Amino acid sequence: MQRLLQALLISMLISIQALGQTDPLPSWNEGPVKQSIIQFVTAVTTPGNDFVPPADRIATFDNDGTLWAEKPLIQGLFAIFRVHRMVAQNPALKNQQPYKAVIEKDKEYFEKAGLKEVIHLVNLTHAGMTATAFAAEVQLFFNTVKHPTLKTSLYQAIYKPQVELLNYLRTNGFKTFICSGGTVDFMRVVSDTLYGIPPEQVIGTELKYRYIDSAGVNDIMRLPGLTTFNDKQEKPVNIQYHIGKRPILACGNEGGAGDVYMLRFSQGNPYKSLQLIVNHDDAAREFEYSEKDNKSLNMAKQYNWQVISMKNDWKTIFP
């Protein structure tokens, strides 16, 4: 509870700070990227050639590496958390794979087994319970686990400049959405607390469900198996399913080229649009990593997207 209240306080302070200053993005350094954001928002909200009606002011943001740190993946930490909880309840599991590999921190096992075994681990740790029970597990995880690299509460692993940007957009009539590869129910537990984005405005990877109304249970049961893996080309597809409109602003990050098609989908909007991509180039304050083929940054150059340099464009990174 203490950490949840801390997270709420952080979000409130960021919002109040932004409202109390003439600069809507105080954690952003002055430069072309910040200028392009403010010019874009001014253009689409001012009557004239580029004006966009409020109903069409849709903004979509990736989550991992775009709104919060992704080294390591926070949902991966949750899977580890769940394994330890499950083994505590049933000690025999510690001798079975993939539980054994998680307990023994055997990275080589997953490297050899590949994506199929990772998905299997997700099914084991995320399914087989009701939606209510899963949400309680996620809340417990955020309230008790610290980020292993940053050494802070997980609530503090969010990017302060991005929270300011979300607030700035909403102040100007935008509807903000998360569109991430993370599972939708995992993010929905904390999206409002962290970012001011309500659960119904979160798009993500989805597990199979079944409604149960028997034996004292009236809930959604989470089943093994995915109905959609919300990454790469699936992001525009799921935006169409859930929103039915192209975003006029889309923001992702380089690292796995998972967001480039969401940005391209946004760029096809008949309205004026803006595409942003976060570049993890600050080893001192966060992490420094890139794609082997440089696909995201190459596409940013090809299609004239704005590249956010963590090192140069953000005065501060974390709250």
Describe the structure.
The chain has 319 residues and is α/β, with parallel strands linked by helices. Strands 4-3-2-1-5-6-7 form a seven-stranded mixed beta sheet, sandwiched between helices. The protein is globular, with a radius of gyration of 20 Å. 43% of the residues lie in helices and 17% in strands. The model has no long low-confidence stretch (mean pLDDT 94). The protein contains 14 helices and seven strands.
Brief summary of the model shown:
43% of the residues lie in helices and 17% in strands. The chain is built from 14 helices and 7 strands.
Secondary-structure class: alpha/beta
* H/E element order: HHEHHHHHHEHHEEHEHEHEH
Bin the helical content: 40-55%
What is Rg? 20 Å
Largest sheet features: 7 strands, mixed
Q: What is the count of DSSP helices, taking H or I runs of 4+ residues?
A: 14
The rough form would be described as globular
Strand content: 15-25%
Calculate the terminal CA-CA distance, rounded to whole Å: 19 Å
Low-confidence stretches are: none
Give the beta-strand count. Answer: 7
Main β-sheet, spatial strand arrangement: 4-3-2-1-5-6-7
Question: Averaged pLDDT, please?
Answer: 94
